[in-house]
Amino acid sequence: MQPLLSAATLDTLFMVWWSTFYAVLIGIPVGVLLHLTDRGAMLQNVVVNKVLGAIANIGRSFPFLILIVVLMPFTRLLVGVSIGPTGAVVPLAIAAIPFFARLVEAALREVDHGLVEAAQAMGGGTWTVIFKVLLPQALPALIAAVTTTVITLIGYSAIAGAVGGGGLGNLAYTYGYLRYDTGLMVITVVELVAIVTVAQLLGDLIVRRLAGRGTRPASLKVGLRRVRTEEPAPVTEAA
Fold first, then answer.
1. Is 0.70 topped by the overall pTM?
2. 8 A C-beta contact, residue 31 and residue 105
3. What is the rounded CA–CA span in Å between residue 24 and residue 31?
4. What letter would DSSP give residue 219?
5. DSSP label of 62
6. Around Cβ 192, how many Cβ atoms within 10 Å?
7. Distance between CA atoms of 136 and 140, rounded to whole angstroms?
């Protein structure tokens, strides 16, 4: 049983790692674009925003089990297989991208708009605002979003395992459920809970560290000039 459990754990970590990687890689640009094309934003574009928003909403609302089946031909075309850990990464990533993109959009929305206006006033363009204001200021919230996405993907990986995706979900279904091995089922569930707990604790620790040191700089550099962001000291009259 131990070799099976070890192999299934590695398969689960493999699926979650790579699907999270692709979700972050694609989800951050999509989330930034959703934020920047919103009403009143720098790149306001109602058409682009509505189209991206509709795609994200459809992707988030699509039942994951059905998504796996629908994407099987595309998965086989893309990676050569439609089952196993490698085959499960494709639907996992596609399911996670719109979910994570919406979390990114929400995180960027919380950034102080005054910092964005200050960067623009000093000649900062779109890329300056994104990489020197929005993303740095939203970093704790983005890490929290990654943590939430990882935990969601752990649950999705268990569902993928039930339809041939491998991992702990497949082990629990094949050996625990179909063969009535209650002990193995309990062990698998406990291990999934442990993985989720570790992911949550690690994410919370990183967020607390970032929040503790503060992400708002004392000044915002734009090109060679500097914009002060702290409040000026009050002027007192001499007696």
1. yes
2. yes
3. 10
4. E
5. S
6. 20
7. 9
